[in-house]
Amino acid sequence: MIRFSLRCEQDHEFEGWFRNNDDFDTQVEKHFVSCPLCNSYKVEKALMAPSVATSRRQEKIAIAMSKMASELREMAKKVRENSDYVGSDFAEEARKIHFGEAEQRGIYGEATPDEVESLVDDGVDVMPLPVFPDDHN
């Protein structure tokens, strides 16, 4: 994972973690990255000082990553408990809800990258739910 210092068009600075530089570019292009302060999708990398990892720093990073994974796991669990599972009909149902053709409610399910991109283009707010290896056990 690579941490990038990011900046939006309003000069808000924040950080993001990505698998690699191409992953960052793809996510920005598909509007999966937005400023947490103003929701702008016009995001670019900001200059940042390189950091050298020490064993103590690596331990702190590992603890922080573990805590973040636990929090993401809990968030996904709450979404699943309080939303309707719509399976592969996710894109269609999300669009119906967005345009007032179906009752307003939380949903989750599966969507292809093209379907997600189309939803974002239509102004539908979507967010991927993390799936962890032990979710399938």
Q: Could you explain the architecture of this structure?
A:
With 137 residues, the protein is an alpha+beta fold. The chain folds into two domains: 44 residues, no CATH class; 82 residues, no CATH class. The chain contains four helices and five strands; from the N terminus they run ββαβαβαβα. The strands form two sheets. Strands 2-1-3 form a three-stranded antiparallel β-sheet. The longest helix has 27 residues. The chain starts with a strand and ends in a 16-residue tail after the last helix.
**Global morphology:** globular
Distance between the termini: 25 Å
Tell me what portion of residues adopts beta-strand conformation. Answer: 15-25%
Number of domains: 2
Please state the oligomeric state of the protein chains shown: single chain
Please count the helical segments: 4
Q: Provide the structure class.
A: alpha+beta
What can be said about the biggest beta sheet? 3 strands, antiparallel
Mean pLDDT level:
89
Strand order of the largest sheet: 2-1-3
State the total count of DSSP E strands: 5
Please give the radius of gyration in angstroms. Answer: 17 Å
Order of helices and strands: EEHEHEHEH
Share of helix among residues?
25-40%
| Unreliable parts | none
InterPro entries: DUF1178
Protein name: DUF1178 domain-containing protein
